[in-house]
Fold:
Amino acid sequence: MTGNARKWAAWLGVVLVGLLWGTGSARAGLVALTATPTPSTTVTASPSPPVGPRYVVQPGDTLYGIATRFGVDLDRLMAVNGLGPNDVLYPGRELILPDLAAVSGYLYAVTVPFGEDWRSLARRYRLPPAEFVRLNHLVSPYQLYAGRPVIVPGDATGPQAWPALARLQLGPGEGLLEAAARQGVNPWVLRWLNHLSGASQALADDVLFYPAADGRDQALGALPPEVRAVRWKPDPRVQGETWALFVTLAPAALPADAADQAPPVQGAWRTRPLHFAPWDDAPADDAAGRTFVALSGVHPLAWVEPYPLRLEGTLPDGRAWAFEQEQPIAAGDYGFEEITVPPEFLDATVAQAESARVAEIMSGYTPTRYWDGPMQAPSPYGGDCINSLFGTRRSYNDGALWGYHAGVDLCGGLGTPIYAAADGVVVLAENLEVRGGAVILDHGWGVYTGYWHLSAIEVQPGQQVQAGDEIGLAGSTGRSTGPHLHWELWVGGVPVNPLTWLQQAWP
Structure:
């Protein structure tokens, strides 16, 4: 018997003990074991020790942080543990958490992964869902954003999570008994493991856990089993940077003629759609299914807070699935600069109308991918000769207009040849009021590059270009303080740092 099987056998034994608890003989035996003889003399009772679960102090913990995390009073926490204001809190020390008498053992903080909700987390850590909600003071499912710490019970060795869980989902019109028979699982195990008081509590489309026969735990406990993996890079997402989302689906989730249909997974992030495409360069561990990828970007001015990521699809048997969870972002490192330009270039009406037109073009999506590998610098001086970085916060004419730098200014004197950064199709080639001589290239999959302030434009809309083809000459047309190339890159309808694309291949 494998170690994993022995663990499951031991835990299933606990269930049998619990069932025996209901018999009279078991209760009588327990009373006999716990009965105490009548003392012959009077004994003065000692004070009762503080009651409550325990927490093992981790590096970086503070008393205030522990009290806040577990929702206990700071003064009570210090009092029951005999701590004074000048005492040092050492990692490894066990603290009693007062006023949580309903919870026993040890409490730990674990990080919420993507793909888990309050039901799946409660089941995974062997808690009734209502108790998990109470312990973590939850009032909304949006509180369980990915990366948030939640409190779970355990023993002195760590959190008590089940060793290996697999997933099944109730099909259309299917009950608990039918699902158990289809999967070859004991229905009583399903009820017990998923905290179901009766078969009627198993709702349509509910995702349930059962012991994994192969000993491998399946994450994504709130998603149907046909969703094998969800991952992204980078982690976390960063203001002003590109990110790629990969979703692997089992063969059973793919229609027979999947090659001729739209990808069976859709999504959205920060209200913007995520367009998925088949990803043929998936790693070897994705071989059990088909991987799809979507590219997007984090706006450089986005607030540093969690934003909802939604995934959904329809399985071949007609089951629709959807899951939404908020994802945090990290702050980018951006500076500030003051710019002085002729006042006529600060007309907000003209600038807004032009920006809206450019944004509409660069928010499109072409299912064909033209580029391959990292992009190349569009200036002959390369990507290291830079006049102004992407994302820099700007003040124009001593505060007359505020904004940020949506691209990177590369070196390029008047008449310097400018090249296409990657293969693509010309979708705009004309003179604009603010951007001057402008060219926009569509590289497919929602990726666009823009080249502003050109003194000459050498391509036409609809023309297909290759990486390194000359598309124009550098200049100082439009809102510009001198000859240079302003280079922009948009992904998923959002301007992102183009220098990142010179350093690595996406996706």
About this structure: Confidence is low (pLDDT under 50) at residues 14-46. The chain has ten helices and 31 strands. The two ends are 43 Å apart (CA to CA). The domain at 165-211 is CATH 3.10.350 (Membrane-bound Lytic Murein Transglycosylase D; Chain A).
